[in-house]
Design brief:
7-stranded mixed beta sheet; alpha/beta; binds pyridoxal-5'-phosphate; 2 domains; 4-stranded mixed beta sheet; Aspartate Aminotransferase, domain 2
Length: 394
C-alpha cells in the first residue's frame, strides 16, 4: 500500500511515459491526452527541445539560492515582462503561491496608501488555489468547508457582472484590488467579456485599485494570444502565472506593472526554490518554443476546429441536441456544458483511451497541449462525441 495522504480521487491508471499528446500506461495501452496534466504540459510530453535544454541545465546547475543573482531568472523575467508588457516578476513554484504573492502585494499596497484593513474583490466560482488565503479567495464553498476560519479581507461578487463591482466601489472604502480569472477554468470555462474587463480596468484606474488577473490556467498562449486579458486590449497591474509556464517543471510567477511596481522591498516576500535555474530554463524554453513554432496560432486554429467538430457532432435540427447546454471556451481551453452531472464520462473516456476532465459536475473540460495536431484534434472529437451521445441517451 502506498503511504500517500488521501487527498485525491484518482482514476485507476498510472502512466510510464509520454510522447507528444500520447501517454502510455503500465500495460502499454496508449491514450490521447486532452488534459495536459491540467494545462501544464504546454509542449506535450517528451518535447525534444525542452528535454535537451533541461538535460543541459541539470548537468550544469539546478539550484543555487535567492541569496545570489540567478541569471536564468533574470532572463526569464525579461522575457515575461516583454511579452506581458509589464515591469517586474516574482518567481515561485505554483499557482497558489503566485496568487499568495499577489494577495500580499495588494495588502501591502493598501497599507502603503493608509488603508489598515485592505479588502480584495473576488468572484463567485473563482479558483485561486488551496493555501489558506487562496482558498479563501476561491469561490467554492465545498472546497472551503472544514477549513474555517478562512482568511478575511475578500469581498465576493458575481463573475462578469459590472454592476456588482460598481456597487462595492460605491460602498466599500477598504477595497484595494480586484482579482479574477479572464476565463474561469475550474469554475466551468466561463469567459469574461472584453467589455467587462475594459470596464473593470476603468474602475481600477478611477479608484486607484490594482487590477489583478489570475492567468494560471488561461495564460501562456492557450487562448491564441500570450495572455487572455490581451483579447480586451488592456494591461493589468498584477498577473499570476504557473501551470503551463514550465511545461511540467514547477514554476509560478507574479508580475506587476504600473502602480503595483516597487511595492515589495527586500524582506517582504520570498521563496527558497522560486526562480531556480532549472525551473527558469523550463520557462524560457517553453516561451521560446511557443514563439518559434507559432503555437498561439496553433491553439487558436485547433480550438476552432475542435469546437466546430463538437458543435457539428452534437448538433440537432435547431442548435445543439437536448442535454448539451453549450460548447464554449477560447483556443485550447474548451468546455462542453451538459444539463446533468456527467463525471462518469471521465471513466468512459479513459476506457476508450482518451483523457478528459469534468469540472463543476456538468462541464466536460478539454485542455490539449499547444502542440496537438489537426489529426489528433479530429481524433479527440471522434472519440468524445459518441461518448457524450451515448451518455445522454441513457
Ligand atoms: C490551478 C490554478 C491555481 C492553483 O495552482 P496550483 O499550482 O495548483 O497551486 C490557481 N488559479 C487558477 C486559475 C488555476 O487554474
Amino acid at each position: 500500500m502506498p503511504h500517500l495522504m488521501n487527498t485525491y480521487g484518482r482514476l485507476p491508471v498510472a502512466f510510464t511515459h509520454g510522447e507528444g499528446c500520447r501517454l502510455f500506461d503500465e500495460q502499454g495501452k496508449s491514450y490521447l491526452d486532452a488534459m495536459s496534466g491540467i494545462a501544464v504540459n504546454t509542449l506535450g510530453h517528451n518535447h525534444p527541445r525542452l528535454v535537451a535544454a533541461l538535460s543541459k541545465q541539470i548537468g550544469r546547475l539546478m539550484h543555487t539560492s535567492n541569496l545570489y543573482h540567478i541569471r536564468e531568472a533574470e532572463e526569464a523575467s525579461d522575457r515575461l515582462a516583454s511579452i506581458a508588457k509589464m515591469d517586474e516578476v516574482f518567481f515561485c513554484n505554483s499557482g497558489c503561491e503566485a496568487n499568495e504573492a499577489a494577495i500580499k502585494l495588494a495588502r501591502l499596497y493598501g497599507h502603503q496608501q493608509g488603508i489598515d484593513q485592505p479588502a480584495i474583490i473576488v468572484m463567485e466560482q473563482a479558483f485561486h488555489g488551496r493555501t489558506l488565503a487562496t482558498l479563501s479567495a476561491t469561490g467554492n464553498r465545498k472546497a472551503q468547508a472544514g477549513f474555517e476560519p478562512l482568511v478575511s479581507g475578500f469581498v465576493r461578487v458575481p463573475f462578469d457582472d459590472l454592476a456588482a463591482i460598481e456597487q462595492v466601489a460605491a460602498n466599500n472604502p477598504n477595497v484595494v484590488a480586484v482579482l479574477f480569472e479572464p476565463i474561469q477554468g475550474e469554475g466551468g470555462i466561463n469567459v469574461a467579456h472584453n467589455k467587462y474587463m475594459r470596464a473593470v480596468r476603468k474602475i481600477c484606474n478611477e479608484k486607484n485599485w490594482l487590477m489583478m488577473v489570475d492567468e494560471v490556467q488561461c495564460g501562456l498562449g492557450r487562448t491564441g494570444i500570450w495572455f487572455a486579458h490581451q483579447h480586451a486590449d488592456i494591461l493589468p497591474d498584477v498577473m499570476t502565472l504557473a501551470k503551463g509556464l514550465g511545461s511540467g517543471v514547477p514554476i509560478g510567477a507574479c508580475l506587476a506593472a504600473g502602480r503595483a511596481t516597487g511595492v515589495f522591498k527586500p524582506g517582504n516576500h520570498g521563496s527558497t526554490f522560486g526562480g531556480n535555474p532549472l525551473a527558469c530554463t523550463a520557462a524560457l524554453t517553453t516561451l521560446k518554443v511557443i514563439e518559434t513554432d507559432d503555437l498561439m496560432t496553433r491553439a487558436s486554429e485547433l480550438g476552432e476546429l475542435i469546437r466546430d467538430g463538437l458543435r457539428h457532432g452534437l448538433a440537432s435540427a435547431d442548435g445543439l441536441i437536448k442535454g448539451v447546454v453549450e460548447v464554449r471556451g477560447d483556443g485550447l481551453l474548451i468546455g462542453i456544458e451538459l444539463d446533468r452531472p456527467c463525471g462518469d464520462l471521465v471513466k468512459r473516456a479513459l476506457a476508450k483511451g482518451l483523457l478528459i476532465n469534468v469540472t463543476v459536475e456538468k462541464v466536460v473540460r478539454l485542455l490539449p497541449a499547444l502542440v496537438m495536431s489537426d489529426a489528433e484534434g479530429a481524433e479527440l472529437v471522434a472519440l468524445l462525441v459518441p461518448l457524450i451521445l451515448d451518455f445522454l441517451k441513457e
